[in-house]
Known about the structure:
Elements: H1 7-36, H2 46-56, H3 65-83, H4 103-122, H5 129-158, H6 163-169, H7 178-181, H8 183-196, H9 215-218, H10 221-246, H11 253-273, H12 279-300
Amino acid sequence: MTFQWIQIPYALLTLFIILNYGMLMTALIQKIGARVGGRYGIPIWQNYIDLLKNIALRSKISHGVMFYLGPVFRLTGGIGLILFVPTIYGSVMHQNFSFAGDLILALYFVFFGTLGMALGAAESGHPHSAIGVSRGLSQVTAAELPLALGVFAISLQYQTLNITDIVAAQQGSIFNWTLFTNPLATVAAMFAFVGTMMRAPFDVVLAPQEIPIGPPTEYHSSYLALMQTNRVLYPIAKTVIYMNLFFGGATSWPEFFVKIFAIYMVSVFIGVVYPRFRVEQSIQFFLKWGLPVGVLAILMV
């Protein structure tokens, strides 16, 4: 398939739908977590209010150029991940630019945002920025290992790196999903999923119970608005990848909304049940459990 200009507004429409879905679902999940803790929680529309407020603010604080490019790189990772991955299988409007990339490109976008934020934090001048950078890159690297092995296993299984072809191979029956045809690869990838979602017990970067600092404190005004936008967009984008690779993709928007919510709730459930890991505990978890399962997934293929 060749590039057509008409696909640009369709891709923007898909991005708009996913952004609003992420805004509402993120607020709903925060409310669920608050109710579990005996609190009322934020209103469903609170994310919209916070985003508009921060967009309207301006700042006179000056840092290095890379400090301001960090949120831009972070948001680019989320947007790029959505634009180069099919959202609705079989839909001409919502396939985005999936024909222009493959699974390897999507994995680059997964890591791109984290690397951008690491470069931005390094130029903030904060004495504790190196702690966040080392924590974030260490955990993400450890979590990416089972994901890479799981992706390698299904690429061998389906003999392709094209995400659309992988989704196509899972159509026809629920038992055609990778969840059933290669459960070990699915389990290995889900280990990485709960780690890269940065929710408890894997929220070692922000460490809200330990130090009241981090990107939400360091950034401000429209730069914080970019981070807030990515915070609701990026988790949905990563969940779309997992839905396409392991859970049969989606052929309609209702199916998309239900599957994304169900997969997302895996990390939410774990987050409200378990306390936060220490940094070394988090890394050991992926190396002890995720890595062996990923190796077994390849051997099974």
